[in-house]
Design a protein that fits this description.
The chain has 221 residues and is α+β, with helices and mostly antiparallel strands. Helix content is 36%, strand content 25%. The chain is built from 8 helices and 9 strands. The strands form 2 sheets. A 7-stranded antiparallel beta sheet has the order 1-4-6-5-7-8-9. Strands 2-3 form a two-stranded antiparallel ribbon. The longest helix has 18 residues. The protein is globular.
């Protein structure tokens, strides 16, 4: 079959995964039954997933690779994304990151399982909350602000990343901006700033000021 020609780890269009849902869900789940069930549900309901990993031990670096799943915010409906966020927002074993890439203008939600030995099955929890549509309303004001800013603004040659870190209580958010200075998308980290929940309310002003300052520095050079 054509699917057997697929080389694991290379890019695959989402619609290609839909051509053989069970095969690709099993392949990408890497042995995790709960991740497989999450992927199958997403495939069957046209919920766009960009990438994933069940988490595993790396024999080369002798480090544990964190599990993650990356949802496409731009091409999924708000109820799905809200359900995922409501599911993970207070989970101490999860960090998550909103990413807006300049080259495609899409917003991505990258969920990172920072404690691979957690008793909670994160993938099963996310699946359950998506099924019961736990996201009709966005419950978190800070996340609503972040999504509004990323949806409404494009920043010249900058990739914007905003991470919520469960281990940082006073300044749980990390704002990062990478500048793409050539066609090969070689990135330079220009903004790296921790933010409190109160500062997130001023995110449009903070982001505009940080980007403008870095752009001026770049153009002077």
């Amino acid at each position: 079959m054509e699917e057997k020609k697929y080389q694991f780890g290379t890019n695959l269009e989402f619609k290609k995964a839909l051509s053989n849902k069970t095969y690709f869900a099993t392949l990408f789940a890497e042995g995790s039954e709960s991740l497989k069930e999450l992927l199958l549900y997403c495939f069957n309901n046209n919920i766009v997933v960009n990438s994933c990993c069940c988490g595993h031990f790396d024999n080369y670096s002798y480090n544990h690779k964190i599990g993650y799943v990356n949802f496409d915010v731009t091409n999924n409906n708000d109820a799905v994304i809200n359900s995922v966020i409501n599911s993970i927002y207070y989970n101490p074993d999860v960090n998550f990151e909103f990413i807006k890439l300049f080259y495609d203008k899409k917003i991505h939600l990258l969920i990172k399982i920072i404690n691979p030995f957690s008793d909670t099955d994160i993938y099963a929890t996310i699946l359950n909350d998506i099924k019961i549509q736990n996201g009709i309303i966005m419950k978190q004001e800070d996340i609503r602000i972040i999504l509004e800013v990323l949806k409404e603004h494009n920043y010249y040659n900058f990739d914007i990343k905003i991470e919520k870190r469960t281990q940082c209580k006073n300044e749980p958010f990390l704002l990062m901006a990478d500048y793409n200075y050539d066609q090969e998308r070689k990135n330079v980290l220009m903004v790296f700033k921790s933010l409190s929940c109160e500062e997130i309310r001023q995110l449009p002003i903070i982001l505009d000021n940080e980007i403008k300052q870095k752009k001026l520095t770049l153009f002077k050079e």
